[in-house]
Amino acid sequence: MPDDNLIIRFWGVRGSYPVPGPRTVRIGGNTACVEIQAGQHTLILDAGTGIINLGAELMRRSRAMGSPVTATILFSHMHNDHTQGFPFFDPAYVGASTLHILGPKVFESDLEETLSHAMLPPSFPVALEDLPSLKILRNVNETDIVLIGPRPADVQVLNIYHNEIDPSPDLVRVRTYHSYAHPKSGVNVYSISWRGKTVVYATDTEGYVQSDQRLVKFAKDADVLIHDAQYRIEDYTNPSKPKQGWGHSTPEMAMAVAQASNAKQLVLFHHEPTYADDTITAIEENARKTFPNTSAAYEGLEIVI
C-alpha cells in the first residue's frame, strides 16, 4: 500500500529579497519556495532562493534512489523573489532531469519568455535554452486543471469545460485561482489535492474588505492554507509609509480567510525581510489567540497530513 501522507516542506519563507544573517537564523532568510510531496510526486511552489537548497536535496535523493529527478514547478507569478533561485537549481543542469514548469501568462509574454528573462545574458551566463534538462513549459489559468500521475512524468493540463476529468484520487490535482490583488498582472493561487487532502498556496495576495470571497470559496475546507502575511497591521497602515496596495496581507487578513474558508491549519508566509526572528515569533503567538492552529513558516518546517 503506497504511503498516504502528503508532506509539505518549507525551503524559503521570506518575501521581497533574501536576508541572511544572525537576525534570521531561526526563521530563515531565503525567498519563497515550498515543496509538496504526494507519494512519488514532487511539486515545487515558486523558485525563490529556497529552491537552491531544495535542488541539492533532490539530487541527493536521486543518487540514493538511483533515479533521475522529476518534478513539477508551479510559479505563482514571475516577480524576482519568486524566480531568482531557478538559475541555481541543480536538477536543471542534469540531462536526465524532467521538469514540468507551469505558471501564469504575464501580459503578452508566455511563461518560457518570462522565465528566460531571469537567465538572460549578460545578467546570467547560462540561457534557459542551454540547460540540458528536459523542460516542458506551459501557462495555466483558472479554466485548467493539472493532473499528475500515475508516474511522476505524467502531467496533463486539461480544460475543465472541454475535457472529461479522471476522478481517480491517486492523481494529484492542481486547480488555479488568479487573484488580481498583486501588482501588476496578479498572481496564481494554487490548490493541490491528493487522496482527499488539500493544500492551498496563496502567496502575494492582499485582503479585501470582508476578505476575498473568491479566495474563501477556492480554499474551502483546505487541510492547510499557506497565506501571505507579510506586514504587521501597524506597518500596513503606517501613515508615513502605508503598505496598502502593495499586494501583501497582514496576519489578520490571512486569519480572516482561514476562518471563513474553514481551513484546518493556517501557515503565515512571505515574511517581511526586515522582521527579525523574534518579531515573526511574536506575530505567530498573537495570531494563535484568534486562530489557534496557526504557524509561522520557517525553513525546515515540515507538515504531514
Automatic annotation (TrEMBL):
Keywords: Endonuclease, Hydrolase, Nuclease
GO terms of molecular function: 3'-tRNA processing endoribonuclease activity
One Pfam family in the UniProt entry: Lactamase_B_2
Domain of life of the organism encoding this protein: Bacteria
Residue ranges occupied by any Metallo-beta-lactamase domain in the UniProt entry: 42-271
Record has Nuclease as a keyword: yes
PANTHER family in alphabetical order: ZINC PHOSPHODIESTERASE ELAC PROTEIN 1
Record-given protein name: Beta-lactamase
Species whose genome carries this gene: Kouleothrix aurantiaca
